Amino acid sequence: MIGYVTVGTNNLPRALDFYDALFDSIGGSRILEEERSVAWSFGPAAAAFGVTKPFNGEPASVGNGVMVALSMSSQKNVEAIYKLALTLGATDEGAPGPRGNNFYAAYFRDLDGNKLCAFFMK
Which CATH number characterizes residue 95's domain? Predict the structure, then answer.
């Protein structure tokens, strides 16, 4: 279904430090490295996540209602990546916990304000 998603940044080196640490903690690795952007994936058939300086040269901004959801293998992993994200400088958008039937999630914003969700479905 989804091949990849990207979020914008105004400070690529800072974003790379954040996402390298975040994705390393869940088995992701860089699959693309260019001057303006970098992408990570979790396997050959998995969707990729990229961070990029906008192609048009304008400042990156956060899309209202846009969110990237990261599938985790357990509630414990949701809690761990959320805690790591906050340690790396992310801001809280919703602590780990149940959200409806069979859905456990935590929400945070990266260093540029992009919203991410870490979730586990039972």
Answer: 3.10.180.10
